[in-house]
Design goal:
three-stranded antiparallel β-sheet, mainly alpha, Arc Repressor Mutant, subunit A, 3 strands, DNA-binding, 7 helices, DNA-binding transcription factor activity, WH-like_DNA-bd_sf
């Protein structure tokens, strides 16, 4: 990225190309994170979308249930995408889908015991992968980075502002 910025500075000194340095590095980091997570999840027979659904259900607490709409909002995907994820997880026996007792028209997604075991087995490995990716930064740098990234997402409207 430094070389690219140097080249643009030489070729187009009239332009401030500094945003490329930030966005380009974010893009490079995204690829590194994706590859590391993919390898971690594969060791547990999962992929990132499956992990996201299982984690959302686990975080919901007992009885580990959410509606497909709630899962769709958590995962920020379309209804078609969440349906595909749920189909795959149900085939593996990691979730069940049943009609809501409160509203027979609504569907409730429930984490099965096998799903909870799969998530609980993958989670420590996932956290270790993330910890390894961040190992080059101090605690202060990590806190600063987390704050800056949150602020960045807030300005893009992706994270609600704190009161």
């Amino acid at each position: 990225m430094d070389l690219i910025l140097e080249q643009w500075s030489r070729e187009r000194p009239d332009l401030d190309c500094s945003p490329m340095g930030i966005i380009g590095r974010i893009t490079q980091l995204q690829r590194e994170v994706h590859l590391a997570q993919r390898a971690t999840f594969a060791r547990h027979g999962l992929d990132a979308p499956s992990f996201d659904v299982l984690a959302a259900l686990r975080r919901a607490g007992q009885p580990y249930q959410l509606t497909p709409t709630a899962l769709m909002r958590t995962a920020l995907v379309t209804s078609g995408a969440i349906t595909q994820r749920l189909d795959r997880l149900e085939e593996k026996g990691l979730i069940t889908r049943t009609r809501s007792e409160a509203d027979g028209r609504a569907v409730v997604v429930t984490l099965t015991a096998a799903g909870r075991e799969a998530l609980d087995a993958a989670l420590p490995d996932h956290l270790e992968t993330e910890r390894g990716l961040l190992a080059g930064l101090s605690e202060d740098e990590l806190a600063q980075l987390a704050c800056l990234l949150r602020r960045f997402l807030v300005t893009l409207g992706r994270v609600p502002q704190r009161p």
